[in-house]
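Hi, here's the filled form for the chain we discussed.

Project: internal
Contact: R.S.
Residues: 179
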Amino acid sequence: MDYLSIIDEYYAEDDELRRLLLLHSRQVADRCLLLANRHPELRLDKQFLEEASMLHDIGIRWCNAPGIYCHGTEHYIRHGLIGGQLLRQKGYTRHAQVCERHTGTGISRQQIERQQLPLPLDGMYEPMELEEKLVCYADKFFSKSHPDRVLSVAQAAQSLEKFGHEGVEKFLSWASLFE
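And the returned structure, exactly as it came back:
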């Protein structure tokens, strides 16, 4: 798979959003590959990790987040769903699942209902495979709002606290597995 050609379909070459997307995605991919190399016993699919990391945020263009050059109309929490739809249409189901499942530490049906999130209730938004979990985990260390900042495990865990302690516990369990 040539992930750059997929990105090129949706993002203009001279676009600030494209530059930010590529920077952030590369940061996530590099962390995934570093951790995968550190843990050969996990037998992670490194090629898939790189591709999925580079495409995990492809749906941001259609969302409303002007601080990171996104001038669409969709709620930002839908970026994974949008990216998943784009990749599924191209036949990349496994990559689509990473898009859909990487927000926070995953989003449960109960969270969608309780918080009245603009996501379909019949979707699966929680990472299941190790590779999905690793992309989700690595993503938490890098912010598109502050691309020059790399969070520590403690800082990333603290940033998740506002969404509930359950997500923090999940993140810390991933830290035990991947670090």
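Let me know if anything looks off before we file it.
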